[in-house]
Amino acid sequence: MRPGSRSFAQQRGFTYFGIIIAVLLIGIALAVVGTVTRTEVQREREVELLFVGHQYRAAIAHYALTNGGGHLPLNLTDLLVDERSVVPTHHLRRLYVDPMTGGTDWVLLRAADGGIYGIYSASKAVPRKRTGFGPTDIGFEDAACYRSWRFIYLPRRNLIPPAPDLLECSAD
Question: Using one digit for the tens of pLDDT, what is the confidence trace for 132-147?
Answer without folding.
Answer: 888 888 889 988 999 9
